[in-house]
Amino acid sequence: MKKRFFSILLSLCMVLMLLPVTAFAEDDPTITISGADVVCAPQDYEFTVTVSEGVTLDSKFGFDTGSSGSDSDLTVDDDGVVRGVMPAEWYNVENGSFQLTVHGKTKDNHDISASKTVTLKPGHSFVDGVCQWCGAKQQYTVEYDGGAEFGLQVAFKTHGVDLPLAEKTFHREGYVQTGWMGSDGIFYELGGVYTTDADVTMYAAWEKIVTLTVPFTTTVELGGNTAPGETTFDLAIVGAYAGEDSYADVTVSGSVTTDGAGDYTGTLTLTGPDDQLWNMLCEGAFVQQVNAGEEGWTYDDTVWGLLLDGGVALSTDDAAPEYTVVILPATCEETDNGVYYDLDWEADPLDEMSFTNIYTKSTTKPTESTKPTTNNTNTGVTTSVQTGDNSNLMLWLVLFAVSAIGAIGTGVYNKRRRNSRTK
Ligand SMILES: [Zn+2]
């Protein structure tokens, strides 16, 4: 009897153990559509689909907007997740909702489907820049305004995300765009960053391009017996009290082409935004000739100081203001830390800068060219040649002395130049 009792108990245990397994195995096949219950009219609706084991999905999902319906493809991504997208343009906003349906077949070929109704909001409702319905981040409009002659350009800033601002966008004759003046009262650099979560208009900030001119004379002197051919001498700004960054957009040009001994006039031009010219010249900038290192030349290494007339502050008004550049002699002191330039405040301002360059080259046999002419024009060849030779000898001695002085001069100048280059 005991044995029988045990066998019944055992059977009962086995049945009990099997029960949940059987129950699970016989669970109904399912399809589940996962996604938000609410979507806003401007946003596409995205969802995923999962199925229980053995269920095969149709490749399309159906939708019903309340006034029309159709179907669209489901996609399977790299991770095997089935996804669907209901684009915003298919919504019927007036209906306030739409329904999605996904179909499939069970292992034993029965039709199976699942549906989801999604509430449709006519627009976002932002709380602290984030939509309380769909989670979308608020977008802000950034308008770029270059003035009446240009159209507006628009960018969008996402809530909480910094927006890099546009670089130089508008090009206006005679002006350079130097930044953006925000309608929030803040000045922004070109290519700067806008961090505020609010609409804004960025007005182009302009600066007038001004050209200042400074006259100069370059004199060519002969140190030898030969005249130089065409030679161009350039001027350059070698320093200023202000840092180079503060006048980075100023361009400087000043050159003169000479051809033989004489005085040649030229103009140094300084072109740039007026405030940068002011930075460059308000305390003094220094001009020197570029030593091009052409053979036979001794370059004048005089430094001139330029100063914007202290009484005239540059204005950004459209009316052309008066600009005056004062020319002063400058001193140039070589130290271990480089070259120091200074204006000679004691000196009277000059009308122009001046540079004197010496051409020291001499031809080795200057008599070669004179001899044949003497021979041709004179009948008394012997005497004529005799006197000619005597005078030529004198000329030779003089020329030798001159070139020796010239050579010494060159040496001194070169040494000075080398030092000033260690700046
Ligand atoms: Zn929304």
Q: How would you describe the overall organization of this protein?
A:
The protein is of the alpha+beta class and 423 residues long. The protein has four domains: 95 residues, Immunoglobulins (Immunoglobulin-like); 70 residues, Listeria-Bacteroides repeat domain (Immunoglobulin-like), CATH 2.60.40.4270; 163 residues, Immunoglobulin-like (Sandwich); 47 residues. Helix content is 20%, strand content 42%. It has four helices and 28 strands. The strands form six sheets. Strands 12, 13, 15, 16, 18, 20, 22, 24 and 28 form a nine-stranded mixed sheet that branches. A hairpin with a 5-residue loop joins β8 and β9. α3 packs antiparallel against α4. It is elongated. It starts with a helix and ends with a helix. The C terminus is likely disordered. Zinc ion binds next to loops.
**In the CATH hierarchy, what is the architecture of the largest domain at level 2?**
Sandwich
Gap between N and C termini: 117 Å
The mean pLDDT is 83
Strand-pairing-aware structural class = alpha+beta
**Gyration radius, rounded:** 45 Å
Q: How many E-type strands?
A: 28
CATH topology of the largest domain: Immunoglobulin-like
Q: Which runs of at least 5 residues are low in confidence (pLDDT < 50)?
A: 368-389, 406-423
Bound small-molecule species? zinc ion
Question: So what's the CATH class of the largest domain?
Answer: Mainly Beta
The biggest sheet, with number of strands, parallel, antiparallel or mixed sense and barrel status, is: 9 strands, mixed
- Principal-axis shape equals elongated
Enumerate how many helices there are, as a single number.
4
User: What portion of residues is helical?
Assistant: 10-25%
Q: How many structural units, i.e. domains? A: 4
What percentage of the residues does DSSP assign to strands (E)?
35-45%
